[in-house]
Write a structure and sequence with these properties.
binds adenosine-5'-diphosphate; binds adenosine monophosphate; alpha/beta; five-stranded parallel beta sheet; 216 residues; 8 strands; 9 helices
């Protein structure tokens, strides 16, 4: 059982790497961003509440996202969890530590995905995803093999996120530096932090993440 956090700014490649780990290792991806987007699509009260904050690039309350993660962990039965986009605040990090220890589990690694801020705009502005299976693509670095058709599931429902624009990204980056980047020091001090060069090609980043997981 391996539990890992992928930590990095928006566009670092967390979702891309998480999806590979799901396929290669049978782990479970827990993306609070995906869960919140699903809540919006379902039109639930919570989904409606978070919509404006998400579109502007702000952080949803700790209470909501911790609740989402708690619910998923309660189901159990995974070969290990990949926390993608969670935790994003110190309160969330503390809550995750408590939840895992209540389950008799621990974090095996926190992978800090290091990028230059300059590449993030290009990664975010070029990103599109499959609305059916949530595969992640990029206009320049990773387009679908056949234009308009998802490589993974064949769906033609390829979508761009409402918050993937430069203005929202700027706000998301500010939130990252103010509230999330302190987690790098937090996990370093706990002895869990491993750094990976996330500017490299997807396959190279995947190899680096894998070697972190294999070394334990
Ligand atoms: P995050 O989940 O951290 O926000 P994503 O995994 O969605 O980031 O990646 C953001 C965009 O950058 C996507 O369009 C993805 O295809 C692309 N991307 C991810 N990793 C790399 C990489 N190593 N090199 C180039 N482009 C990448
Ligand atoms: P992501 O898909 O990780 O880029 O997240 C998209 C948006 O969802 C963020 O900009 C936030 O508005 C919200 N969000 C996702 N995860 C969290 C979290 N752990 N804490 C607070 N807000 C979150």
């Amino acid at each position: 059982m391996t539990n890992v956090i992928l930590l990095g700014p928006p566009g670092a490649g967390k979702g891309t790497q998480a999806k590979r780990l799901v396929v290669e290792r049978g782990m479970t991806q827990l993306s609070t961003g995906d869960m919140l987007r699903e809540a919006r699509i379902s039109g639930s009260e919570m989904g409606l509440k978070v919509a404006a904050v998400m579109d502007a690039g702000g952080l949803v309350t700790d209470e909501i996202v911790i609740g989402l993660i708690r619910e998923k962990l309660q189901h159990g039965g995974s070969a290990g969890y990949i926390f993608d986009g969670f935790p994003r605040t110190l309160a969330q990090a503390d809550a995750l530590g408590d939840l895992l220890s209540q389950m008799g589990q621990k974090l095996d690694a926190v992978v800090a995905m290091e990028v230059d801020d300059g590449v993030l705009v290009r990664r975010i502005v070029g990103r599109y995803t499959c609305g059916n299976c949530s595969a992640v693509y990029h206009d320049e670095t990773h387009p679908t093999a056949k234009p308009g058709v998802c490589d993974s599931c064949g769906s033609t429902n390829l979508v761009r996120r409402a918050d993937d624009n430069e203005e929202s990204l700027r706000h998301r980056l500010m939130e990252y530096y103010k509230k999330t980047s302190p987690l790098i020091g937090y996990y370093y001090a706990k002895g869990d932090l491993k750094r990976v060069d996330a500017l490299a090609k997807v396959e190279e980043v995947a190899a680096a993440v894998s070697s972190v997981l294999d070394r334990g």
